[in-house]
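anyone seen this seq b4? input:
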Amino acid sequence: MTPSLPAFVGSLPVLVVAPHLDDALLSAFALATSGTSTSVLTVFDGEPERPVVTSWDLVCSLRDSAEAMALRRAENDEAMRRSGCAHHSLGLIDQQYLDGPRPAAEADTIREAVRSWLNEVGNGIVAVPAGAGAPPPTSAVFGTPGGARRRRLRQLVGPAGQALLNARARWMARNTLPAAHVDHLFVRDALVPLAQEGCGVVLYEEVPYLWGAPADRSVTDLVGQHGLRALEVTAGVDLAHKARCVGAYGTQVELLYSPHGRLDSVSGLPETERYWLLTALSAAGPSLDHPRRRV
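predicted toks r here
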């Protein structure tokens, strides 16, 4: 029999690791709001030293990274208040504000933050993205920093041309099946190995990326690569409460893909959320009740 979410979690503390400021409540709302010992850690919520202009921020009607991150952090504060979740910040930089690949050493930073939490609570569940979505492009992600050439182009086309460029980008965002986000994959790949150390690692299927491709293939590949097994749980969601909490992310939610309506509405959200508990093949079973060695 497939366990329910309460049986899945038990009385253990839960840390939902969110790549970005809206990911925890969009994708793992049932888990994040499952008890008083649950908290959220957002990884990429830092601000570049100098303001950066990206196409994503522009289509969200945000001037640059400084304005965007200030407003998004304020939105997240309100979303956490509505949901009742405790929130922690790691302060790394969103991929869209980087000029190249993310430094590999940041994986160690993420692992150490999670290890610190695990050692503090003694035994707990760490929830990480599953990697849902269509295969990501080999080129830079949508939102790549606007360079001098792009800024010159925008200056040449003038306000009317810029409005057309933004309108096209908004249409593409709302109507294109989402590809897996490289920041999600980075966080996942940094933390899944903790399951081999006896930690309780849970994958959550991401919204809106699940409409690009569900996470099943990604989960299958992960368990094969790392010598793990996965126990799936489907959880019901209080959609009205989730929609109200997600509605706090006003700068983002209008442009996120959904085939059924806005993600701050009951009709636009998936009726259920999916999770997978990872355990090492050598473990006796899927339960998290066995002693976990400190990391």
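Residues 202 and 277 are 4 Å apart (CA to CA). Residues 148-175 form the longest helix (28 residues). kinda curious what u guys think
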